[in-house]
Amino acid sequence: MANYLMSNCLAWAKLLIPINSVVGVGIVVIFGVLCFSHKHFVHRMKLEKPPGPFPIWPILGSLPLLSKFPYFSLYNLSKKYGDVMELKLGTTNIVVISSPKLAKEVLQTHDLVFATRSENVIATMFSYGRKDVAWAPYGHDWRQMRKLCTLGLFTPKRLHASKKVRNEEISCMVHEIFEHCKEGKLVNLKTMLINTSLNMMTRLLFNKKYFSTKQFSTKECEEFNDFLTEELHLQGLFNISDYVSFLKPFDLQGFLPRGKKIHMKMDRFFDKILHDHRIDQKENVESKDFVDMLFSSSRVDNYNYTLDDNTIKGIINDMLIAGTDTTSTTIEWALVELVKNPNIMKKTQDELDHVVGHDRIVDEDDIPQLKYLQAVVKETFRLHATIPLITRECMTNCKVGGYDILAKTPIIVNIWAIHRHSSAYDDPWDFNPERFVGSGVDVKGVDFELLPFGSGRRGCLGMPLGLMQVQYQLARLLHSFTWKLPIGENPQNMDMGEVFGVTLPKVIPLEVIPIARLPLHMYGPL
Ligand code: HEM
Description:
By secondary structure, the chain is of the alpha+beta class. The protein has helices spanning 2-19, 21-46, 70-81, 100-109, 121-126, 140-154, 156-161, 163-182, 189-206, 219-236, 255-279, 290-300, 309-340, 342-355, 371-383, 415-418, 463-480; strands at 84-89, 92-97, 187-188, 389-393, 398-400, 403-405, 410-414, 481-484, 511-516.
């Protein structure tokens, strides 16, 4: 039909051009557009699109169906429409995946097709126009950056070299907690865990420590903490401009001025780090930090790819954002569950006592023997998915679950829903580490019922470090202390509310009383 119309169109053009070329060309263009739209319409009609709610609201589509906990709203919608569904959010059609089987199709079978991410106004600003790793479009530059980051931070050799830093920072935290413990004081674990993660990362990235576990040591630290917190908050907010494209220039929620203010501060902070590294170029390879390594790569052009300052700043920002809140949030949730389930805490500590004993502190090399601790960490990742929604974009037309997904469609893999899917878990709302004891299911992206780090070529870049940090910090905290709520507080009544952002932290930070378990000389000071 479309071909027939097109040939007619050409015939008409031949007739019209001699009469009046301007009018003729106009008619041909209109006819051409009609033919194209017709062809496009017929093509779309033939497609088998995933089911989903009818978008009843003008402009907003199905946006009003999402609550302030979008992972939960999408989970409920998937019960009605299925494990692959399409929603019109604003003017954008998005596809949502909610089962292990379909996650495997997207992240493994079609790994390459879904290896890019959609643009997002705030992330684009903080990533210097998607010049970083996490938001870069799939392609050569993104591959080179991933390679550089892996070589600089995450190879087994690099991880081994940075073990001392992790050890020192955790020992500082344990010592600080012990000070509270001697006075019988409550500990706000969230602040301590975040500051410990930040110190570890800043030492690895640019060899500088900013925080004590108690307070900010300088005005610079305070500012650093403020802009990181605000960036995390802004990146997690729901921005209507990302879904209704024609509203973008109006920035209805006023996020842009807020973002710009923070981004300027952050940029000044990063400029200073780059400046300090430029004037202090280290000769000795051993003493080089990650920023030194990025500088060397920017000069040598080792990878047929050159790094400019904005790319280096974007990468540092990624590592700070992706590598700190993720680990501290997960450890906090693990402790919340263990305080609620003292028998599970005791079983984890019994294993630690058996493998490590009380005459030495835990070492990272002990982790492979601590099978029950690993099960506790897996169950925490399952029930409290650190990043509940993974966002990608389809690069070419493809089929998922038998349905057609068009190129450029944003896709959300609802990890939170997958971790509760009936095909994989009985009693999914219970915290039960036993389900992973001897199960062989791992978090590394090959078992699609447990995907805390995502999967495939776009999966979490920092997984080796993130996983080690969560397991090791938890092991140290449980080996060193037993954790209890203040007298009179019932663990079963603990508030379990979450805040949706980039990660899913507890609304009310955990405050607990530590009780020492080891001989006193094992608590430092360093
Ligand atoms: C508990 C710890 C962590 C969790 C649960 C976590 C989880 C995730 C998830 C779910 C993704 C998206 C994956 C996908 O699209 O399939 C991701 C991406 C990423 N993560 Fe992590 N992460 C953690 C720690 C870290 C650490 C320590 C770093 C670095 C220091 C890091 C750096 C990144 C980066 C750079 C990306 C983007 C990768 C890309 O787009 O190519 N993460 N992470």
